[in-house]
Amino acid sequence: MSGQVAGIFIGIALGVVWITLGFGAVALCVVLGIVGWIVVGAAQGSIHLGDVAQDLQGRRRSAE
Q1: What pTM was computed for the model?
Q2: CA 47 to CA 39: how far, in whole Å?
Q3: Which one of 26, 32, 40, 41 is CB 3.0 to 4.6 Å from 47, fit for a cystine?
Q4: Structural domain spans, the chain
């Protein structure tokens, strides 16, 4: 499944949630989706939480 197809399905699902449960439920779905993406990325090693923390604090990293 390509990213565009996944995006379409996610958009449709969020639209149905919004229609049935309201904006608060959609916002919660988005936040939980972002948290899940970060957790899985960290578990797989594609996201390095130490680098993310340094970026959020505005620290520079050495060139690798």
Answers
A1: 0.63
A2: 9
A3: 41
A4: 3-57
